[in-house]
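Weekend entry, working from home. Most of the wet-lab plans are on hold until the incubator is repaired, so I used the time to fold the two sequences that have been sitting in the queue since the last round of cloning. Logging both here for the record. First:
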Amino acid sequence: MKNLLKASFVIGLALVALIAAVNVQAQSVQINGIGSSALFFDLGLAASTLNGIAGGMCVWSSTGITSGAIANAIDTSMITPLSDSGPAWVTWTPSFGQSANAQTCNGPNVTSTTKVWAYLQTDSVVGNRCLFHAHTTFGSQCTVFYPTNDPLPENFVLTSPGAEFPLPPQIANALNNTLVNMAGTDIRPEDAVFATARALTPCATSVTTGSQYLGLGYNNGDNILSFFNNFGAHLLNFTLPVSYFVTPIGATPIVVVVNGDSTGFNNPSSLVTNLSSATLAMFLDGIFSFTGQALATPTASGAPVTVVIPEPLSGTSNTMEFNVPNTTANQTSQDVGLNQPMGQRDCNPVGPGLNPMNLMTASGGHRRRAIGTEQELSEVVDTANNGNNSLSYGFWSVANFRFFSNALAANARYLTIDGIDPLITRSAAYTGVIPTTGSATLANVSLNSVANGTYPIWSILRLVTVDSTSTVAAATLANATKALVSFGTTTARPDFVVAENMQVVRSHFIPPAGVGLPASAADGHVGLPTSPCTSPEAGGDVGGQVLTLRADAAFCLVTGVTTGQTGRRR
């Protein structure tokens, strides 16, 4: 979630000046990251283990709500600086080579050798934009500021009492005087710059002549708002640099969830357990809005449905958008689509229609905007806001779906899509019960349908950097994150398929709009290091057709092409 703040130009200049100041602690900062909500908890948990000592690292985390404990990303690329905030975590090495405790983690014991990792949750596009704006030829235009008032932890990452510690001002100042050096993202930078270009194109106008992709009508600097509170995500144009590095972590599915009652999704005579991609597209674009339309033979009957839609700057939204509604077959959208009913296009007439989005559908239900994974998923089970039958989605992880324990969400379930289960594909049958911490069902999560590409809605979680030093630090964090993941009877975090274990790749392509796009695309070959498709990965891949790595390798071997089968979109 991101908070809306606007600072005056004078304040903005002061902030830029502050960044220029030299602080001896800045040399200890390993990662000063920003970006995807899907990665937030896994990265934080991994960063809490980086010193390898029993008792782990010193950790501070914030929900991004409590006054005095909020981190802000300030972008100064426009005359009026704009700020995005959200949950954050910071980890640092305890003093004296010991385990973390109140003494070894406090300010007086912070030295120039203390190592620091930090991450501010915004979304994928904001993360990419802030990273690249921090490294422009004009100097830094995006900086993350952490509170320097020794704020108490909110135990958002490590939930056990006493597991986290106050953030020493020395650590906060070190971060505040260090350039952002990493973005967490669910989509490639090329897809992020296209998402920005699409959002800035006049509403319902093709992003390029003949394109099925229509603009959303926002202006540069607009804040895309949540219906549920005053949080938002700022839309700011940016340019891809000539070079950057992308470190893949792993692939995870988007899981579609519903909450229902006996007249709707949980009607015992017509229980909804599966949606086809075409049916899901019609719920997302507003054509379908009755629970009866989720059945194999759809009827405009049953209960009204509220669909919670994430902001178009999120990797979650883009992964869903270009794999389900806005494919070459469906050509519709969650926001503004070619085949979308005019009354459900969020346009007025060339700008966005409702900000925040809150469009009534034929059933009397709504399509409503949410910001961030936590809000998207928590609102599904909020019957006071959204009625008894609602639908949304989010990237799978145990932490992301913590709202769905039986005690909190007895009437909720996840759905299969096109008959494919995103989570449980061995040793157990589908029940719809969402695996949560401590439940026996976690042992049944395999993510096999992601590894082999049969489940249609997935993406690779990545870390983006712009220099070799940060790339090494990001690789260390990525490896620690991978080490948390396991499957089987003892697992606590079956959260993603490690990138090296993937059997498939998405066809890469050059998006139709965006500043700084590469000249050509290449699929890459993570998961098959012996592949003759040796060209470095380049181009967008969100919504690319799924290819087996071996088939792509065979294509390169036979044709002599080293880029793989590029330019193929779902």
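Second, folded right after the first finished:
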Amino acid sequence: MRPIESHIVPPGTARERLSDYAHRVFQSVPSRKGMKKAIKAGAIFVDGRPGHTGHWVLPGQRIELMPPAQAPPKALALPLEVLYEDTHLALINKPAGLPTSGNRYRTV
């Protein structure tokens, strides 16, 4: 997985907690609370390892913001009659009242 943003702490940087420093550096996380949640969720890495809110940032360290992990969508077992199927096309007999778009869960 590639980082969204990456930053190397410059020399002469004062000692500071990771949550505070990363909040100033990464503009894509707008709040301190959001940054703490990102760190606890494992989205912030320091020198290739998951960061912790109590970690002290040191000059020369590489801090990376990874994309949030997304859970796969829930699959609903729908009894559908398959009329035809090949590698490029599928024809199903959709029951009346079952939406085909606009709904993330109960849809074909």
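Plan for Monday: verify the second prediction. Residues 99 and 107 are 5 Å apart (CA to CA).
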